[in-house]
Amino acid sequence: MTGGRALMGDQMIPHLLLTTTGSKSGQPRETPLACLPEDGGTFLVVGSNFGREHHPAWSGNLIKTPQATIRFQGRVIPVTAALLTDAAREQAWQTLTRFWPLYQGYTDRSGRELRVFRLSPDTR
């Protein structure tokens, strides 16, 4: 209804609307996600799936096709996703769990390492 300008929970944690390309269908798939905006215009997002056993579909879509679009505060931004690993993931994870401690609970509940992506604006 608001074109991504306002999502439920924005008062608690920032949100964006992510549009990926479906890994099987090739069709656009929209998902509202909590995010952590970073300096430099990038965003961190976590494939928590609310602590469920499996990774969310949108994270697999980004792995197959990292080019996506986000709506954040009413702006449409083309982005490229990078799945963070090793030291980059650990640094982002520390920041994310300080910002939103529930992520650690989701990790414990799911029994898996949650995927962390950095979405960087591109010039498409």
Automatic annotation (TrEMBL):
Reactions it catalyzes: oxidized coenzyme F420-(gamma-L-Glu)(n) + a quinol + H(+) = reduced coenzyme F420-(gamma-L-Glu)(n) + a quinone
GO function terms (MF aspect): coenzyme F420 binding; oxidoreductase activity
GO cellular component: plasma membrane
Source organism of this protein record: Nonomuraea turkmeniaca
Record-stated family: Belongs to the F420H(2)-dependent quinone reductase family.
PANTHER family per the UniProt record, alphabetical: F420H(2)-DEPENDENT QUINONE REDUCTASE RV1261C
This protein's name: Nitroreductase family deazaflavin-dependent oxidoreductase
SUPFAM superfamilies named in the record: FMN-binding split barrel (SSF50475)
Superkingdom classification of source: Bacteria
Record-linked Gene3D superfamilies: Electron Transport, Fmn-binding Protein, Chain A
